[in-house]
Amino acid sequence: MSLNICTTPFKIDFTAFSLLLKNIYTRTFMKKFISYLLYLSLCFSYSQDSVLIKSKVANAITELSDFVAIPNDALNADDIDSNLFWLRKKFTERGFNSSILDTEGLPLFFAALPMDDSKPTILFYMHLDGQSVDPSKWDQPDPYKVVLKSKTEDGWKTESFSDLSDDINYDWRLFGRSTSDDKGPIVMFLNAIDILRKENVDIPYNVKVILDSEEEKSSAPLPKAVRTYKDLLKADFLVINDGPVHVSGKPTIVYGCRGITTLSLTTYGPIKPQHSGHYGNYAPNPGFQLAQLLATMKDAEGKVLIEGYYDGITLDEATLEILRSVPDNAEEINSNLAISTPEKVGSFYQEALQYPSLNIRGLGSAWIGDQARTIVPATATAELDLRLVPESDGNHLKALVKDHIKKQGYHVMSSVPTKEERLKYDHIVTVQEGSVTDAFRTDLNNPFGKSIVKILENKFGEKPVQIRIMGGTVPISPFINELKIPAFIVPMVNPDNNQHSPNENLKIGQIAYGIETFYSLLSTKM
């Protein structure tokens, strides 16, 4: 089944057709006549398939609106239970057997089609949860009620869903929490299954699905859960459907993602804030201490100065060639970020992502703005996140940061210092450590990956963008570590979807893209 063979409108040129009939006795025109018939046949096939896809897109819009209407805040167990109930009903309707898998946190959702031991197994990972929302920041009354909008010169115009009945404008968008991240891909998957069943396609795989319910709060229970349900989750390879396609909008396959860990650093001045007139120039200022400490960690070009931070990372020419093949536009990226010059960790964007990062994600000390006071603060705090690559161990990097702080003359603690400790040490830093989510990266030459590239290329007529490792984090390492299988991210949604932000949205054309992609992956033997 091909869903995009003929890209022109299905119209018969009757003048050309009659000329062909009048001249059918000549060999030249006979060839043209046969070619024309083939063209008509292909266009008729396209027209049929286009109607089918559009009908499934329409159904997906209805299902997604229904799904999004169920709040999915991972901090609220009742929300997750309501979503699990909806999922169980929808997957059962498609012939799946499903289970709710208990964990030390919120449950996971698991579903599988009937198994055939002679077939390889593909495991799909997506997530059903979302972060909390602040409705006041959204351009609609309720983030959980999907709104249809079209792009105008002045912004976004609300459209009526009834206007989709005659035709579906693939440039219009659905606005609502989790439309893109990550309920949209789940609904695309379900509607691709509908087409496979309608066409009586014999799927050449065993199909398993695992849906995370705490992805947006770090998936802390996942590593133990994967160990517990290892036999149930057993598969030959893993496909993750989370995150956006490349900014170019082209079909995309990602071979890995960075991990993450965090550190919180607090420096100390007087035990209570003091009047800057009385104690300025006398009481040590924790803000300056912290600023000076942080400044020792990076040079002016953004490279980490902590000894050993980049150890173990090498990029050969073949790898660099893949990185350079990603169609990033540095000028456009810089313009979107409104920056003159990027940091120099890598010589271009994709190269920069191959290294662990050290980021200040928040700074705080005393009061600012209208609340500013003329005081010497008592404390100053920096929140750091460290994005990890497979060559870097999160606990090792945190140890390197702490060793570096000690070398700057600081006494490092894991708790708030007592008065006695304050009097004993000139410089004190409290360091609080976050948990570690490991990075993963599948080899670019993996045969399953090559097959996915070929499937996407055949389906959409262009070579997909291949990204060695993306900058963000998806908690996939437990599957890699426990199941010992390769993993690939095949994103479905538009790059400007505002995930994790107000006015999250999903372009309707991406729903069609997702349905076609899932159909192709599940109907083609790798």
TrEMBL record:
* Sections of the chain in a coiled coil: none
MF GO annotations: metal ion binding; peptidase activity
Keywords for this protein: Hydrolase, Metal-binding, Protease
Q: Where is the Peptidase M20 dimerisation domain?
A: 256-410
Q: Which Gene3D superfamilies match?
A: 3.30.70.360, Zn peptidases (3.40.630.10)
Pfam families, alphabetized: M20_dimer, Peptidase_M20
A Gene Ontology annotation in the biological process aspect, one of them, is: proteolysis
> Domain of life, per the record?
Bacteria
The name this protein carries in UniProt is: Acetylornithine deacetylase/Succinyl-diaminopimelate desuccinylase
Q: Which organism is it from?
A: Maribacter orientalis
